[in-house]
Amino acid sequence: MHIHILGICGTFMGSLAQLAKSQGHRVTGSDANVYPPMSTQLEQAGIEVQEGFDVSHLQPAPDLVVVGNAMSRGNEAVEYVLNKGLPYTSGPAYLSNHLLKDKWVMAVAGTHGKTTTTSMLAWVLEDCGFQPGFLIGGVPKNFGVSARLGESDFFVVEADEYDSAFFDKRSKFVHYHGRTVILNNMEFDHADIFKDLDAIKTQFHHLVRTIPSEGQIIFPANDANIKSTLDMGCWTPTVTLGGDWRAELKHVSGSVFEVYQGEQLVGEVRWKQTGQHNVNNALACIAAAHHVGILPKDSIAALNRFVGVKRRMELICDAKEVKIYDDFAHHPTAIESTLAGMANSGEFKRIRAVIEPRSNTMRMGVHKAELPKAVEQADEIIWFQPKGLNWDMENVVEQCNIPNRVNDEPKSVLFDDIDAIIAHLVQTSEPGDGIVLMSNGGFGGIHKKLAEAMSS
């Protein structure tokens, strides 16, 4: 079968393309922005990608067009598909109908931590001999790829709440029919598609309605938003984190913690990850693995060998006793948790956060009031104001502009130029600094540029 994918270079769609190719299909695609690393992955997989959305890409007609959720009415290729009556579907629907049939689907949903928790869970199953398939919105370092078919009945999927396609406004995760489902947390996000928190709860409850009564839902006992969603109706046994499963920190950074099932100590995690958020992710992973028959001690042993995910506190440069990290954090809660993990590690003389408000929700200014609290643990915050931002960042910068704990210089500064940020960091960095670049996008190539400048 010839499958053509519109919007192929997104993380989800690119991973889906590689899975379809592994199934033996001929896969082609098109996108407005074709660039590494996804373009490189697709090329290596033997998938032809064309730039733009010219209708010639759909001639001769493919057997099926898979439409990415970034595509909208008015797009030349979309209009051609509709006018010519070409068979089409969404990415999540393709995944459900062609890859997840007859699988034990383990789905990880929630506002934060989906990619990391999915990576942990896939690795635990792999390390314990389950040979799972997976599709993840990032690249777990234990695997080096974001998706694979697997060789068993188990499939681990990152279950995103974003909408499926222009013709299907349900969240992606309703298509997956998860049997073991982790609900990591729930907050307001994606303000471009959700009016309010209640709209998000509605979608999560659609997910809950699809989980079989012989399945399991795993969620944090202290998350009021998830609790109220489940109170709308739940037909599946639940397991709570902080109740049925809990963790006790042995080091404030989260690098060492004990795991309890009820009141029974079942093991101790000693790993390179930090932050309370990662402790929570690991606990959810252990509980989910237990549901499919993996003993806690074996999950813990696997987690001790988990080496992380690209772009999740990924060390990209260690030069002149200055460490530079790439982190995907772009929501105030995620920013706060990452910085707290750095502070609690005791590793850094000074923590310097470089933040790009890039997500649609951040660009709309929805979370601007929460940002000053989110960055309290940093010794310096370097804000980047991109073009087209819907709000002025100067007020937020001013609220954070108190003397830092290392010296009396202002804690918060604002730039509108990437090269100026790099120059500032290179000129002012000192041994013991930890610099974290926070964005859910390419951030103008700052990662490579800063690493090269700092190294030289």
From TrEMBL:
SUPFAM superfamilies named in the record? MurCD N-terminal domain (SSF51984), MurD-like peptide ligases, catalytic domain (SSF53623), MurD-like peptide ligases, peptide-binding domain (SSF53244)
Q: Mur ligase central domain: which residues?
A: 108-289
A GO biological process held by the record = peptidoglycan turnover
**Enzyme Commission number(s) of this protein:** 6.3.2.45
| This protein's UniProt keywords | ATP-binding, Cell cycle, Cell division, Cell shape, Cell wall biogenesis/degradation, Ligase, Magnesium, Nucleotide-binding, Peptidoglycan synthesis
The keyword Glycosyltransferase is annotated on this UniProt entry:
no
Q: Which cofactor does it need?
A: Mg(2+)
The organism's superkingdom is given as Bacteria
The protein's matches in InterPro entries, at most eight in alphabetical order, are given as: Mpl (IPR005757), Mur-like_cat_sf (IPR036565), Mur_ligase_C (IPR004101), Mur_ligase_C_dom_sf (IPR036615), Mur_ligase_cen (IPR013221), Mur_ligase_N (IPR000713), MurCDEF_pg_biosynth (IPR050061)
Q: In which pathway does it act?
A: Cell wall biogenesis; peptidoglycan recycling
Question: Which EC class, in a word?
Answer: ligase
**Where, by residue number, does ATP bind?**
110-116
Q: Name one GO molecular function term.
A: ATP binding
Q: What job does the chain carry out?
A: Reutilizes the intact tripeptide L-alanyl-gamma-D-glutamyl-meso-diaminopimelate by linking it to UDP-N-acetylmuramate.
Q: Which family does it belong to?
A: Belongs to the MurCDEF family. Mpl subfamily.
- The identity of this protein, by name, is UDP-N-acetylmuramate--L-alanyl-gamma-D-glutamyl-meso-2,6-diaminoheptandioate ligase
Give the source species. Bermanella marisrubri
